[in-house]
Amino acid sequence: MQKIKALFFAAAFLCAAAFAQDERNAQSSVIKIQKSKVPQINSLNVRDKDYMLKQFDDEVEQNKQFFISGKPVLPSFYAYTINNDDDLFNLAARFCIRYDSFCLINGITGAEEYIKGKTLLLPSADGIFVPLEESKNLSALEFLLQKNRLALLEDTSHLRYNIDGKDFAFFPGEKFTTTERAFFLDTSMQLPVKNYRISSRYGQRENPFNGAKTQFHRGVDMAVPNGSNVFACKSGTVSGRGENAVYGKWIQIDHGRGMTSFYAHLSSIQENAQKGTIVRAGELIAKSGSTGQVTGPHLHFEIWLNGKTVDPSAYGNF
User: Fold this and answer.
1) What is the number of H-type helices and E-type strands within the chain?
2) SS3 for 109-127, per residue?
3) Is residue 158 within 8 Å of residue 114, measured between CB atoms?
């Protein structure tokens, strides 16, 4: 039995070693990784029986030592399928690698994302994988990662990976900054104004300017005095701001994953909330007003999901 185990371990070792060697041979260019072709870890509960897991543990420890001693760090990749007992944080603890080392390469940009049953790609080294796509295709967190590492990205000596068709730059030992971690952990939807009264809800209503007609109201109207503070309901990137005859002064925030929020009839918009800038949940972005087509001072607030409006009351106590 021991001989069979030894042979199995040797085969697993050679498989992972061959895969790592292919990566090293490609180091001068983009290293291509496909999740379907990497070694599979079957369980986190039987370390003495899953030889791929044992190999992964050994590589993680070796790469930690390489990083400490200043030697080059080149991770191999393994796959693991999430079960009902797993979450990102206990996985990070049990694999002995940080969650920020494997979340982005698996398309996970927020702690609240549903991951049960998903197969994750796991690198055998701590570090940050920064996506190299254009900013218009990125979530707020991914955009922030790029922005914070512009100087690092200009250095072309770093490792580059193409992981299931998406390009990343790898920086060994790097981790989320305090702000990036806050973006990742931000799961709440905050109210955009305080001390308000709902003057019109989402859905069909009589046209306030022509009571004989009904219209679909795409948001909620929150009556507040002129000049009240307006806050970002969730972290994101300012995707637009402007003024027109209907909405008056308005601002829009892209929260990633198909969600945007829209704020209208403003008296003013903060200078720090320019298009393309990143704002935090609860950050002051504007002052309420009565610009545009209104019957009184209020904030018109909309939530959009994948190109369609949704009832904001589904996300907060409106």
Assistant:
1) 7, 19
2) CCCCCCCCCCEEEEECCCE
3) no
Distance in angstroms (rounded) separating the CA atoms of residues 210 and 206: 8
β-pair type (284-288, 259-269): antiparallel
| Whole-prediction pTM | 0.59
Measured from the Cβ of residue 119, the count of other Cβ atoms closer than 10 Å reads 13
pLDDT tens track for 85-109? 788 888 899 899 999 999 999 988 8
At 9, the amino acid letter reads F
- pLDDT tens digits, one per residue of 181-206: 877 887 667 889 988 899 999 988 87
Q: What is the mean pLDDT of residues 176-184?
A: 84
Exposure b/e, 170-200, CB count within 10 A at least 16 = b: bbbebebeeebeebbebeebbbbbeebeebb
Strands (E) across the chain are located at: 31-33, 40-41, 77-81, 119-123, 127-131, 159-163, 166-172, 197-200, 203-207, 210-217, 220-223, 229-231, 236-244, 248-256, 259-269, 278-279, 284-288, 299-305, 308-310
- Which one has a higher pLDDT value, 21 or 167? 167
Contacting residues for 291 by C-beta, under 8 A, at least 6 apart: 243, 247, 248, 249, 265, 266, 267
Q: Which residue has the higher pLDDT, 93 or 13?
A: 93
Question: Hey, what are 111's tokens?
Answer: 């702690």
Where are the extended beta strands (E) located within 40-94? Answer: 40-41, 77-81
